[in-house]
Input
Amino acid sequence: MKTIEKEVISEWIIQKSRFITILTPIEKEEDIKTILLHIKESYKGATHYCYAYHLEGKMRFEDDGEPNKTAGMPILNVLQKENLDHILCIVVRYFGGIKLGAGGLVRSYTKSVTNALEKATFHTLEKKTKVILTFPYEQEKKILFLLKDKKIEEKEYSKEITYTVWLKEEEFEILKSANIFYEKKEQAFR
Output
């Protein structure tokens, strides 16, 4: 399973209709509504805002006024064929006045997503655990050294220092060997 590194935007025109494809990595379903609202604000006046997403086994598509299964389903099919997860794909269409027919729409939406994916950079998703580390100030340099390749999501300085970081299961050995107190939280593919 893989996802894209960062957002990709691609555009192409067929029969005077303009198709703008936005591929966005997502972490939770709540992100989708916010992203859609932003896209609708950024691309005002479009005829259709069709989309599909795949997020940890959950899949959904929306044709947004296009004939049934001629837009959202082809978008989702491409995402599935490429084994993509944690991804939202929105195709914004500005109608050009020439009807494409059901087959033409399916081909156009499929091609729009395929074109955008050619511009994307991918990374493999791995199951990770959100970990809360708590340690005294004098251990901070040691902890930073142990976590040098990890992104620390949150840092809190009070009586002790608390870091929030995502780790793969095998990375817990680092913490155990350093006798660092940690608390496991949720798991997710990242």
Q: What stands out?
A: The CA atoms of residues 29 and 55 lie 8 Å apart.
